[in-house]
């Protein structure tokens, strides 16, 4: 639904090389060829950019430790994915647990597991962190797996508070083709949320981050526009997150939701 070539053109040099170097198995041959072409178009040296990524990771770690020393942290999980880490980040912040995350593919000594991120928590908070994480993940040793992997469960775990977009990025236009069915579902539940916003916020004890974006989104859908911005995508996810557990929410939205979630969690 979202055009890969368009997305790749928006990647930073480092992110593009990360995909090329570390995530090749995640792409089809045709998709990986688009990545290679984008690197060639920018005249990038993957080896040089990889070194920059590793240096950035090292500097970032020093900043994340916030005055602690590395010896004060214990690794408690080594196979988290990027989407896992968004959830982990929200869980540990809520419990005020000091932690930092290591991107293992940037460090050859760490190897490369099914997931690419290791989680380190402060020695005094190991048990607290494990108990909090166990509510959402199952574990075998230091390997964790999300308990709920279906699309709607991923949507329910999606934390809008952790998505930070600058004004330029949020407004950038992306070519998108929504099916008539997808358009109808978003329009129906978007209109419903406009009417029920106060009730929803009270009953679900939540803030609607993208309420102000719903009406402009519905106008775009009504005009059958083909260009949408990231704020539009987040508004759709929020609409669906609010109603995904309702009995009248359709079961045929997995493709739409999975695509939009992958757009932000990749």
Provide a short characterization of the protein structure.
55% of the residues lie in helices and 12% in strands. The protein is α+β, with helices and mostly antiparallel strands. Strand 4 and strand 5 form a beta hairpin.
Topology (elements, then pairings):
Elements (H helix, E strand, L loop, with lengths): L3 H7 L2 H10 L6 H13 L4 H19 L8 E8 L1 H13 L4 E5 L13 E6 L3 H9 L2 E4 L2 E4 L4 H7 L9 H5 L1 E3 L4 H25 L6 H12 L4 E3 H14 L10 H12 L1
Antiparallel strand pairs: 1-3, 2-3, 4-5, 6-7
Helix pairs in contact: 1-3, 2-3, 2-4, 7-12, 9-10, 9-11, 10-11
Characterise this structure:
With 266 residues, the protein is α+β, with helices and mostly antiparallel strands. The chain has three domains: 4-48, no CATH class; 65-147, Alpha-Beta Plaits, CATH 3.30.70; 153-265, no CATH class. It has helices at 4-10, 13-22, 29-41, 46-64, 82-94, 126-134, 151-157, 167-171, 180-204, 211-222, 230-243, 254-265, and strands at 73-80, 99-103, 117-122, 137-140, 143-146, 173-175, 227-229. The strands form three sheets. The protein has a three-stranded antiparallel β-sheet. A two-stranded antiparallel sheet has the order 4-5. Strand 4 and strand 5 form a beta hairpin. The model is unreliable at 106-114 (pLDDT under 50).
